[in-house]
Model the fold of this input.
Amino acid sequence: MNRLFLSILFALPAAATCCAQQPVPPPQPNVPHNRIFQSGWLPQAKTPAEYQAYARAAEVEGAANAEKSAEEFATAYPDSELRYLLYSRTMRLYQEANQSEGTLKNGRRVLALHQNDPVALVMIASVLAEHTSDTDPDREARFAEAIDKARRAINNIDTALILPPHTPTEQILQAKSFLLSAAHSSIGLVDLLRGNNADAESELHASLETGKADPSPLTWLRLALAQEHEKNYTSALASINQAMQIAGPNTEIQGLARQEREHLLQLSGGQESHQASVEK
Done:
């Protein structure tokens, strides 16, 4: 995930709980649905001992060790709101380590405590979309869950996103845009893998639009594939050129994009529009 976004999001354990004994203000009445951010709930410790135990668990390094510490804390404090923070942290550590099952397991734990948490919803959707094979026996169930989780994240982004108190508006908008982009990307990937190419194109366009401040070359590559399957080679070439332009040199995505471009040129008879050539 985007490092800037993670740095914003996971400042929450320190920011929220250092003020754990302070009351959280109630939600404002009659706030329009398209508000930038509001949370009527932040995790709080009930006692100093609970907070100290949490603080010790939150310092443990490594995903597996952090998970063990979170489980031990949850056993000692089964009703603690701070379990949410520890499971969120463990989910992030597994995600950074590229361990999908640990990400999925702890994402589900987060949702058990905060059912519409957009970050956990997006992480679960991403894991299910990215790590489901054609031979997976519950392929369709995993895909259906990925879409459901991604849409829930989109629908609850304005009301359920929890960030550190006093987070600057610009950073809140960045976090929100990144989550929306990732959610649309997951839906688009599932549609692509299911062969729903028109729907995939729409969702991948939405991902790139909401994430235009930090465009993903992989999303551009997937968009090119959807457009190729629709035999829209001109648009596909323009998209693959964008992927090649954004991807770093000598990267796996750059190599895949180059192969796809050669394939598209063969399909189109070696022709590309002036626009596609300029964007290359």
User: Anything to note?
Assistant: Residues 1-38, 274-280 have pLDDT under 50 and may be disordered. The domain at 3-167 is CATH 1.25.40 (Serine Threonine Protein Phosphatase 5, Tetratricopeptide repeat). DSSP finds 14 helices and no strands in the chain.
